[in-house]
Write a structure and sequence with these properties.
Blueprint: H1 3-12, H2 17-38, H3 41-57, H4 68-85, H5 94-104, H6 110-121, H7 125-136, H8 141-148, H9 152-192
C-alpha cells in the first residue's frame, strides 16, 4: 500500500487532518506546473490554491484508484486555462522562476530551462502540454494520458512528434549560434591584422 493509498484510507475513515498531508505531498509539483502555465509567481499561487480547493471540495466524490496525481493535474490544467482566459497572465517572472526551479532539480541549469520553455512554448497546444508534463513534471506516459484524456498510443505518438520538433528547433538554434560565433571570430581576426 502506498502512502497515498493510506492517506485516502484515513480520509475515508473521517480523519480530515490527512487532507493537509495530501496537499503537502503534491503542492510543489502542482505549483511548478502552474508557474509554467501562468508565468507569474502570484498567478501560480492563486492557481495552486484554487486547484487544491477544488480537489478538496470534490474529494467526497473522488474514488481513489491510484490516479489522484492525474486528477490534480487535470484540475490544475483547467484552472490555469480559466485564469488565462480571464487575462490573468503577466510577463514571466524569471527571477522567481529561477529561484524556484533550481532547487527543485527540474533541470541542472536555469538558462537551459528557460531555453527549453521558450522552445516548448512554440509547439502546438497538445504537443507543448505533453512535453511539459513529461519532461518538466516528469509524469509517466500513462499519467499524461489520464491528465489529457487521450489514449496512451496517441500520447506516445504526439510525444515522439514533439520531441522531433524540439530537436529540429534546438539544431536550428545551435546552427545559428555557431554561425554567429564564426562571424564574430572572423571579425576579431580582421581587427587583429
Amino acid at each position: 500500500m502506498t502512502r497515498e493509498d493510506e492517506i485516502f484510507r484515513q480520509i475515508k475513515q473521517g480523519n480530515k487532518e490527512y487532507v493537509d498531508e495530501l496537499v503537502r505531498m503534491y503542492y510543489p509539483e502542482i505549483f511548478r506546473y502552474c508557474i509554467w502555465h501562468t508565468k507569474s509567481y502570484a498567478n501560480a499561487e492563486d492557481a495552486v490554491q484554487e486547484t487544491f480547493l477544488k480537489a478538496v471540495r470534490y474529494l467526497d466524490r473522488y474514488t481513489h484508484k491510484g490516479k489522484f496525481r492525474a486528477f490534480l493535474y487535470q484540475i490544475a490544467a483547467n484552472t490555469c486555462i480559466d485564469m488565462n482566459r480571464r487575462k490573468y497572465e503577466e510577463p514571466m517572472d524569471t527571477e522567481i522562476l529561477e529561484t524556484f526551479m533550481e532547487p527543485a532539480g527540474v533541470m541542472d541549469d536555469v538558462e537551459e530551462t528557460m531555453d527549453f520553455l521558450s522552445l516548448a512554448e512554440n509547439l502546438p497546444g497538445e504537443a507543448k502540454e505533453i512535453i511539459l508534463l513529461r519532461f518538466g513534471q516528469e509524469l509517466k506516459l500513462r499519467e499524461i494520458a489520464d491528465v489529457m484524456g487521450l489514449p496512451l498510443r496517441t500520447v506516445q505518438s504526439k510525444l515522439r512528434s514533439a520531441v522531433r520538433q524540439l530537436r529540429e528547433r534546438i539544431m536550428e538554434k545551435e546552427a545559428a549560434a555557431s554561425k554567429k560565433q564564426r562571424k564574430r571570430k572572423l571579425a576579431e581576426g580582421k581587427r587583429g591584422e
